[in-house]
Amino acid sequence: MAQSTVNGRESKYVYWSRIGRKACQYALVLFIALTINFSLPRLAPGDPLSYLFGTEVNSLSEEQRDQVNSELGLDRSILSQYADFLAGAFTLELGSSTKFGKPVTEVLADSLPWSLLIIGPALLLSPFAGILFGAYAAWHRAKRRDIVLLVLMLTMEAMPVFWAGMLLIAIFSVQLGWLPSYGAVPLIHPGNTLDYGLEVLRRMVLPVITITFSSIGTYFLMTRFSMLDTLGQDYMTMAEAKGVRPRRLLYGHALRNALLPVYTHFTMSLGILLGGAVIVETVFSYPGIGRLLYESVIARDYPMMQGVFLMITVGVIIANLLADLTYPLVDPRVRTRRALEAAR
């Protein structure tokens, strides 16, 4: 009885020590990321004055420059600005945008739903199609179907995102006239809520297809490579020798084990895609976070850039945390290893 109590205390200690190490790692990553987020806008060439006044910036007097810098909060030392940025990052007081003239949090709240509207479907479509075609190609390895799919996916993987978007615009908007090529909402409200919703959906199609095309190749290649490795394992040969049906052999045995690295990539992409849609949203003039970041960089809008970078950073960290928490549910070997560590 006493021994089991001691073992229980040791297992709790191992559990909480692992949680503590993870918390320290994420805190360090967050601090480094915040420091980089603060530094990057200021290391880039140009400044807000050049955007606000254009060619007339050289005609400003020293007093006028100091007045504008004071209004923008740029007259203080870098350390003072850095301290205010860190405090604002934790209190969500990120200042006001010099380009939009509104609080950064308000602009982010307006843009985030539009990004999620196109990233959400793409996050579902690209893994589903990539995994399905990757498993099919691996099952028919070295055959014509496998080679055709491999060449097609490699071509899609190598295709620049902006070029794919412009190609889709040329075909479906210019030539066929089926879909709009820019914006998220119609210029003139149709007057009917249903028609308005349909117009929003029509403007989603090309950005979603572009994001899906740009990421489906990675899922295909990862699934195919992992499946080929899994199909060569001894337990697969044993299952085949026992007469397991091909469909169950493919989906119940091979694909289930081959999905582990694909799942890790999926969780990592949850945060990265939020900022990775910059090119797509710029090509289609879509009013999301990516387009907002592009406009902020052009305007040298320091508060806005810092806010977008902060959102992307937090998204990536949350995705990593989600992967750490859910991976033991996907891979039983992780649960077994942790149980053995706790039992020592």
Automatic annotation (TrEMBL):
Main localization of the protein described in the UniProt heading: membrane
Domain ABC transmembrane type-1 stretches: 112-323
GO terms of biological process kind: transmembrane transport
Transmembrane segments: 26-44, 112-135, 147-172, 204-222, 266-289, 309-330
InterPro entries to which the protein is assigned, alphabetical: MetI-like, MetI-like_sf
Record's protein name: ABC transporter permease
Source organism of the structure: Cohnella faecalis
Membrane topology, as annotated: Multi-pass membrane protein
